[in-house]
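Q: What residues go here?
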């Protein structure tokens, strides 16, 4: 197989995966859909809390790590779930080893970087202003 054919197959595979993720992420109840995608969860929140929750959901929908977590979730459902049913003790041993590795690496030192939360404050302010203007009475002029 030539390099050009390999590149073409890789691009085709990427396009297929991208299309699948876009379809699945928007469908409620799908492996890629989250409760935040489904919309209102039926709870009554304080108005300020509601604005913050909506802003967080909008921010997470646009966050670059969201697609990585969707891919990881689907991969785990397709690979680890059947393995856990067939060999539960091996799964527990693997989880213990993975936990020990996570403690040894300590990834939380690197995760809480300011770049991770980029755009969150602007998303909160934008949501609050949008909500405030939507709640105004159109018959009353405010300065």
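A:
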């Amino acid at each position: 197989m030539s390099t050009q054919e390999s590149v073409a197959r890789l691009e085709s595979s990427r396009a297929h995966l991208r299309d699948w993720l876009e379809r699945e992420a928007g469908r409620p109840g799908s492996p890629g859909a989250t409760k935040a995608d489904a919309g209102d969860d039926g709870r009554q929140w304080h108005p300020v809390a509601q604005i913050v929750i909506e802003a967080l959901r909008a921010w997470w929908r646009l966050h670059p790590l969201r697609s990585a977590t969707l891919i990881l979730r689907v991969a785990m459902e397709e690979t680890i779930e059947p393995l856990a049913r067939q060999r539960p003790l091996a799964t527990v041993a693997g989880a213990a080893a993975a936990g020990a590795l996570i403690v040894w690496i300590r990834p939380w030192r690197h995760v809480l970087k300011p770049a991770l939360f980029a755009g969150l404050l602007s998303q909160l302010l934008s949501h609050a202003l949008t909500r405030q203007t939507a709640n105004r009475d159109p018959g009353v002029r405010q300065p």
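A: Context that may help when evaluating the design: The chain has seven helices and no strands. The longest helix spans residues 3-25.
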